[in-house]
Amino acid sequence: MPVSEAMISGMFDLNRAGEEGLAAQLTSQLRGLIASGRIGKGQALPSSRRLASDLGVSRNTVTYAFEQLAAEGYLETSHGRRPAVTVDGGEHIESAGGAASRVRSAKPRLSPWASKLSQMDWPMSYLAPLRPLRPGHGDFREFPNEVWARCLRRSAVRAGRRELGPINRPRLREALAHYLATSRGVRATADQIMILPSAQAALTLIAATLITPGDDVWVEDPGYPGAAAAFRASGARVIGVGLDQQGMQRMSGTAAPTLIFMTPSHQHPTGRLMSLARRTEFLNASRPGKTWIVEDDYDGEFHYDSRPVPALQGLDAHGRVFYVGTFSKAMMSDIRLGYLVVPPAMVATLEVAQRHIGLMAASHIQEALAEFIADGHFLAHVRRMRRIYHARRDHLVDGLQRHLGELLSVEVPAGGIQLVARFKRSRADRAAVKRLVEAGVETRALSSLSLGRPRDQGLLLGFAAWRESEISAAVRTMESCF
Ligand SMILES: Cc1ncc(COP(=O)(O)O)c(C=O)c1O
């Protein structure tokens, strides 16, 4: 199926800080996209001018890639026309001495799950290397690497003496159960806690164990696209539910869904806090064993204006709530550790599924994290970052109101790592994001987080990962762009 020029431009991920030049990266990525069949035979590519502008590279870089792949037989180029793909990725393409030779083989038949995923792309990917004000990140420059390294070292040294034990390490489960009870009001015993490589792994595991194709799943709209993707790939009918000031709304008059996904502590992306009344409404409406609630508390550690509101999970007396957390915001983006608190009735099923899918985290890292938490380093880091992020949030809010107040209205979140600024007058947010990226400021279009027709146009801006001087510079850039 032909794909649009914009989709093709979105398929590249160039690393400007890497050692490999941009032209070489572009050439090999384009070759890979054709060889894998993601860009099919006959597909016209964007013009060199258009692709260069979409990717923020020079036209020479794109021309180099086109000419190289034309020489290798992947593309046909002729003057004045857009280059077209000449080979079918369904054919196995082998490179021998730089020349492409082709052997026929059938296109792989994918499972329904993989076919759904292959139509999606990872919804949160970005083109450029990390730049202000990309949302979704904490500041890994502030992480106490020396302390963490000592925990890792001690754990690695002990590894030879450790029993081959449970895949969810008891020490970490205990440390987390205690931390979650005291800091987030989560009520769980240690054996309800699973240690996973990410929050996304938790969502995939829940979807794999609870969704029958055709089931209804409610998600917040706008919301976190990674969750919608996980449920949709399992065959669910994903239904976007709007928000009001109290958070996700309850839909009445519709059949109860199998699952409701929500981010009640800081709604993603708006940062809104779900009111107690709304939490109780959702809990009362979800029947044990029939309608499950998935509470994603991805950045609940960071609250600034009031005492943190305890997790919804802690209000649930009937085992209806899965509680998902991640260390990728509170520690480092690439630490690749998350966790899932499982309702008692589902523990055995989830543990078997975890082993079969292989969603386990390395034992020595789990042990190191258990020590990091038990010795108080995690809480100390969170407390320190809470102060820093609080100041950064205020700095960004102040900068936006002062310099862009006529254009943008800022929704000040009570916590979290990012905020939403809406355009006061209608404006295409995706075009604005593109323009900002070209100028060196990375944001996400609010409309890209909507499931259906976007209700609002605006920008999702990260403040936690950026120093105040970086935030000020980004706001000045935004001002000059608009
Ligand atoms: C709401 C929400 N949930 C989960 C995640 C993903 O966490 P992880 O990296 O652990 O999969 C993110 C990441 O941006 C998020 O914004």
Total DSSP E strands = 17
**What is the number of independent domains?**
3
Beta-strand residue fraction: 5-15%
* CATH class type of the largest domain: Alpha Beta
Binned, the helix content reads 25-40%
> What structural class do you assign from the helix and strand content?
alpha/beta
CATH superfamily of the largest domain: Type I PLP-dependent aspartate aminotransferase-like (Major domain)
**Cross-sheet strand order for the largest sheet:** 5-13-12-11-10-6-7
The distinct bound ligands, ions and cofactors come out as: pyridoxal-5'-phosphate
Summed over residues and divided by their number, the pLDDT gives a mean of 90
Radius of gyration, CA atoms, in whole angstroms: 24 Å
CATH topology of the largest domain: Aspartate Aminotransferase, domain 2
Shape descriptor = globular
Family: In the C-terminal section; belongs to the class-I pyridoxal-phosphate-dependent aminotransferase family.
InterPro entries: Aminotransferase_I/II_large (IPR004839), HTH_trans_reg/aminotransferase (IPR051446), PyrdxlP-dep_Trfase (IPR015424), PyrdxlP-dep_Trfase_major (IPR015421), Tscrpt_reg_HTH_GntR (IPR000524), WH-like_DNA-bd_sf (IPR036388), WH_DNA-bd_sf (IPR036390)
Keywords: Aminotransferase, DNA-binding, Pyridoxal phosphate, Transcription, Transcription regulation, Transferase
Pfam families: Aminotran_1_2, GntR
